[in-house]
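Sample 1 of the test manifest.
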Amino acid sequence: MRHLLSVDDLGGRAGIERMLDLADSFLAVTRREIPKVPALLGKVVVSLFYEESTRTRLSFETAAKRLSADTMTFSVSTSSVKKGESLLDTVQTIEAMGIDAIVVRHSAAGAPHRITGWTRAAVVNAGDGRHEHPTQALLDAFTLRQHRQIEGTRIAIVGDIVHSRVARSNVKMFAALGADVTLVGPPTLMPESLEGWPVGVSHDLDEVLGEVDIVYLLRIQQERIASGCFPSLREYTARWGLTASRAARLKPDVLVMHPGPMNRGVEIAFDVAGAGISLVTQQVTNGVAVRMAVLFDILQEPKDGEAGDGAPDEGGKQDRPEEDGPKEDGHD
Amino acid sequence: MTEMYLLRGGTIVDGTTDPRRADVFVRDGLIADVGDDIDAAGALVLDAEGCVVAPGLVDIQVHFREPGREDSETIETGSRAAALGGCTAVVCMPNTSPPLDDAAVVQSVLTRGREVGLCDVRAAGCITKGREGRELAPMGELYDAGVRIFTDDGDCVADATVMRRAFEYAGALAGAVVAQHAEDPSLVAGGHMHEGAWSARLGIPGRPSEAEIVIVARDLALARRTGGRYHVLHLSTAGAAELVRRAKAEGLAVTAECTPQHFTLTDACCEGYDPTFKMNPPLRGDEDRDAVRAALVDGTIDAIATDHAPHAPETKAVPFEEAPPGMLGVETAFAVAHTELVVSGALSLQELLARMSWRPAAIAGLRDSHGGPVAPGSPASLCVFDVGERWTVDPGGGASRSRNTPWAGRELLGKVRHTLLGGSATVIDGEATR
């Protein structure tokens, strides 16, 4: 993989599973006493975030450090960007410092694609506009896989689909892994066209809830009211929120996921978010291991026969303490 | 200084008769003779063997960026590009800085065009002051300065009452036409490409076809009530084409134009997030593209115009959503249209030239000096095309000051060999004369 711009770049089911396996072995690394391997020693990873996202940025930077890469944070808010420097010039300036990968978050869809044309460094998309957020999808699949066989699982993605890069990436991710995906929400929050999307659609959460194994909730933003997507948060919650009473009607083994940050009381009730069935905190923990896998894969070019150097070996995999692994499903 | 030219060996296509082989003798700004064995002693002979000799093209929608954005284009560079594209007349859109809502600014554009002398540069005037969509611009003064097409192009006149008043007021200005950039602002707010399967997939906020359809439908109702003359700029949707078709059948004074990109390219071009393919109205889906082409072929759409919209390279070297909309067009329009429509058999060459020369000339009120028959006594604004020449578009190789062509690398059939403006050569053997 040269760049990770979209879930499409992972190479279909086989590529995704290979990446998840790699993340598994890095998860074991993160649990060691010294959670660090020399895999990317001497490599430089820059995070270039045009939108604030402290959790995603820290997750990538932690992942890079655990692989022994050097990290740089290009702070957009205090830099030359504020003086009007273009994305092109910023990228080429960073490039001139000698870097290997750029992790980019941008409010415009396709900004990471543009950057690939301006640099020799590998580009990792950490979220671009409403387009994609492929590492989020990887970590969601990774978390889910710790609990379930994804093949044949029925997943409802609920909420603001049209504005969500997480939804675009996860639809591709879950479908590639053989899940049966249904998008749920008001028609105003559905994509303008679902041509080519391997999904079903419903506007009735109650009808869907009885049939699904996984409920994936998306963040609802207040500003969608001003743009006429729905009348009020109260009405949204009443129709599409995972309220306590809806949660009580779920099948006992249904898993609830959310990419965060959550609006407790809007798309998810306070108690539901905190309950044992929620995978929300595990999603965050797994983020580092998944991003280690991505950075490792993308920077491990087969040059000078050093490919694989420092990679966690089979022994590393066996190190994984099963008892510390995620709980299997079935608990309440 | 008497300039004399003999266009030798070409085939005349001017819409008056079947194409006919004849030499054309140009003297004192006029076509002096058409025929064989013309005694043209002292004339500069321009080889037209194997070429088509036609009235010069008339592009009724260009942005030459002067005044205001001379880093992107000037009247000089734009005129040169237009001449190389076979144009003898262009109509500059009024969204300059300052805008063409003032007769003095219009005069400065026309004067600069005459000084450059590579093309008959005309100006469209604003419908509203400052293109703000509220109060009418001084349409009478603009008219007196030479404006015939009124538009706030770049922006849609969204307020229905303002549009109604524009139709009514223009009724006092003989030959004036109210032209609309038909995109309902509220439906396209925040949008950057056509709304459809591609925008949904790419995550780029969309501009739906309905934004054009609702404005054209509304404007046609207003034109019907006021008796106003209406022109749809860069028509891009099946829905609007059908509305215009019905309005014409009903007898309304409505005309429409489309761009080469709208009858050739689609929103799939945006797949790589390259802002070269960003424009307003956006490149549409297959269905709209096919409908626009069909409407152009059946005459519902009267004219091809380019919406030549230069943007300096740095303004396009940004993410798609941050780039300004617009594409180059004047240098490639004939070749693209010829390749797409004539080579494919959809139109005869004569039918294509009708859509690129005499019909747009009529819309813009330029038939006195452009698009007339190639006959003795007519103004010698002519173009000579080598319809057999193959060439590949090089974005850096054009005369425009900008490079944002959507046709880069495309092989086209048909190239301008010579252009004459008012009896004076502006292009000889594919090179601008100045």
